[in-house]
Amino acid sequence: MSTDQQGYALITGGSQGIGAAIALELARKGFGVIVTARSEAALQDVRTRAAALNGGRAHALVVDLLEADGPDRVLRSISELGVPLTCLVNNAGHAHWGLFGEEPMAEHRKLMRLNMDVPVQLTHALLPELKKAKRAYILNTSSMTAFHALASMALYAASKAFILRWSRSLRIELKGTSVSVTAVCPGAVITGFTARAGMQAMDDLAKKFGTPPEPVAKSAVAAMLKGAPEVVPGFLNKLTRVFQGLMPMSVNEGAASGIYLKRLPRRRASN
Questions:
Q1: In terms of residue numbers, what domain contains 73?
Q2: Of the residues 15, 142, 180, 257, which is catalytic?
Q3: Is 156 a catalytic residue?
Q4: What's the CA gap between 169 and 172, in Å, rounded?
């Protein structure tokens, strides 16, 4: 446990997976943590574990960010807590698997809101507070899918590309201020993601090539504290990224899309 106090970090999607692991890693580094998600029991468990690491400086906000007033409720709660915010982790996200034209528009709206609208809204509202700190951080969760198109997860890949490009642009805009911006681009992570996204047919690949969330969180937080622009956690993912840079984009996108389309259940892939 670090004895240095680093202010407080807000982590969205902090009840499980990468978000929970990042919250605990930040607590180890001396940050107070404010975790927010829909799942109260899981969220309280993360809060308790974080509090044990940072001297009790942990809060849990049970909020559904998909609700119209969700982000505003988070912002009001932070204001009421009156704690010095020095870190924002935009981690909450949504995914679903299927051909774009066959998936309900309601699912597309949910994905776009949680993956893009909410991070933008929270960052825009909290940026003035972050700028007041001597040193502050924004950590955005993107994905390896940000680097190429991906049929059957078209909107998800596009949303992660948005997060990556937005992070890069925001980083340039904030040059010379106290705020740095880092994007983390994980590959497959063993978090239950496939079940939540309806991708059980990909479970075997996720288990074979996936990484536990803890190493991803360590890499992400380390890169953030160094002020790095982005990080691809894991040797295999880094190697994949190198090979992607050596091949034509059409080859990358065709190969990646082919894996997903081949495993997409026939009832969803058929016209």
A1: 8-269
A2: 142
A3: yes
A4: 5
**Residue 3 counted as domain residue:** no
Helix (H) / strand (E) element for 231: namely strand 230-231
Question: 247: domain CATH number?
Answer: 3.40.50.720
Please confirm, yes or no, whether 152 is among the known catalytic residues.
no
How far is the C-alpha of 97 from the C-alpha of 111, rounded, in Å?
Answer: 11
The pLDDT value given to residue 188? 86
CA distance 196 to 15: 14
Answer yes or no: is 28 within a domain: yes
Given the residues 8, 15, 159, 160, the one annotated as active site: 160
In a domain, 2, yes or no: no
Report the domain count for the chain: 1
Tokens encoding 172: 């340039």
Q: What is the mean pLDDT of residues 148-167?
A: 97
Question: In this structure, how many other beta carbons lie within 10 angstroms of the beta carbon of residue 216?
Answer: 28
Residue range 214-266, pLDDT digits in tens: 999 999 999 999 999 999 999 989 999 998 989 999 999 999 999 889 888 86
Which pLDDT band, with edges at 50, 70 and 90, does 209 fall under?
Answer: low
131 is catalytic: no
In a domain, 222, yes or no: yes
Which residue of the set 15, 137, 152, 156 is catalytic?
Answer: 156
